[in-house]
Amino acid sequence: MPPFHLPVEIGPGDRSRFQRLIARMDANITYAVFPATVLAMLGIEPAWSQVFQAEEGGQKEVQLAEIRVRLEGQERTTVCVFGEPGIRPALGRHTLEAFGLVPDEASETLVEAKLILG
After folding, report:
1. Where would you tag: which of 40, 73, 87, 111 has the fewest CB atoms within 10 A of its CB?
2. pLDDT at 1 exceeding the cut of 60
3. pLDDT per residue over 19-62, tens digit each?
4. Number of H helices, E strands in the chain
5. Please, are residues 91 and 79 in contact by the beta-carbon 8 Å criterion?
6. Contacts of 80 (CB under 8 A, 6+ apart)
7. Taking a C-beta distance cutoff of 8 angstroms, is the pair 99, 40 a contact?
8. What distance in Å separates the CA atoms of residue 10 and residue 43, rounded to the nearest whole number?
9. CA-based nearest residue to 95, from 2, 1, 6, 18
10. What is the mean pLDDT of the chain?
């Protein structure tokens, strides 16, 4: 079953403004991904770069930053990849787990994750 989509709000770490977007909930990717143009509009600048495995094979170096995400009445700081123009916004495993949530693709909702302490 393919990932599903939910509304989220993203903004800079200082919480000065937020932008509402529809993002896919995708535990198959690691971090959040948003178009670089949207992040720049919000005043978010890349903080570092990292090499990732590309879906089509090979490796790709991308820019990242920490951003604020609002999801289902909660707000967290998370790592975000600066996506290429036209990329669909997405929340990955790292971001969803920061909220204590996992996607339930059958019901197209987020449910509480079983978090492990230790």
Report:
1. 73
2. no
3. 999 999 999 999 999 999 999 999 999 999 999 988 788 999 99
4. 2, 9
5. no
6. 10, 31, 32, 33, 34, 39, 44, 64, 65, 66, 67
7. no
8. 11
9. 6
10. 94
